[in-house]
């Protein structure tokens, strides 16, 4: 018994030699095996993996040492029999990118909730005059995190 899981992983890399080294290192690990689809370009690495019984924490634990050793960040799209549509980052810029991704999700949820609000919600929002302050704060935080990535690239 168990569950199937599927990954799509990509990373920006300094050059194709590092990308090939990372790919070779991962494929040599018994926990990964050979990737059915992979590509190494001048500035990117991409691979897909299908396997059994790997949750996102296992994936993180397998990728993090490689990402830190080679000073890269992996973007992971993960789905399994139990989860679908998960996206997370592993590596040197993971904390900022995971926060930015989660903030994007919060902003999307707020925008969906607030436009157009249902009649029940309109009553609640009228009593909440500082909603604009929250939206301004979220936008400022989003901009700060996005710009931090532009300066570190």
Radius of gyration: 19 Å
Order of helices and strands: EHEEHEEHHH
Question: What characterizes the major β-sheet?
Answer: 5 strands, antiparallel
Summed over residues and divided by their number, the pLDDT gives a mean of 86
Could you outline the blueprint of secondary structure elements for this entry?
Blueprint: E1 4-12, H1 16-28, E2 37-40, E3 44-52, H2 56-69, E4 73-80, E5 86-91, H3 94-114, H4 119-126, H5 131-152
Antiparallel strand pairs: 1-3, 1-4, 2-3, 4-5
Helix pairs in contact: 3-5
Structure report:
The chain is of the alpha+beta class and 153 residues long. Helices cover 51% and strands 24% of the residues. It has five helices and five strands. Strands 2-3-1-4-5 form a five-stranded antiparallel β-sheet. Strand 4 and strand 5 form a beta hairpin. Helix 3 packs antiparallel against helix 5. The N and C termini lie far apart (44 Å). The model has no long low-confidence stretch (mean pLDDT 86).
Characteristic terms for this protein:
about 150 residues, about 50% helix, elongated
Concise overview:
With 153 residues, the chain is α+β, with helices and mostly antiparallel strands.
């Amino acid at each position: 018994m168990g569950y199937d899981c599927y990954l799509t992983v990509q990373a920006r890399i300094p050059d194709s030699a590092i990308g090939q080294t990372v790919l070779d290192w991962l494929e040599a690990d018994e926990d990964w095996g050979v990737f059915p689809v992979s590509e190494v370009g001048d500035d990117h690495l991409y691979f897909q993996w299908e396997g059994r019984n790997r949750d996102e924490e296992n994936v993180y634990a397998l990728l993090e040492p490689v990402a830190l050793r080679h000073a890269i960040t992996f973007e992971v799209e993960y789905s399994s029999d139990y989860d679908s549509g998960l996206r997370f980052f592993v590596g040197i810029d993971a904390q900022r990118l995971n926060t930015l991704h989660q903030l994007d999700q919060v902003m999307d949820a707020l925008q969906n909730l607030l436009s157009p609000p249902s009649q029940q919600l309109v009553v609640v929002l009228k009593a909440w005059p500082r909603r604009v302050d929250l939206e301004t704060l979220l936008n400022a935080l989003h901009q700060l995190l996005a710009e931090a990535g532009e300066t570190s690239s």
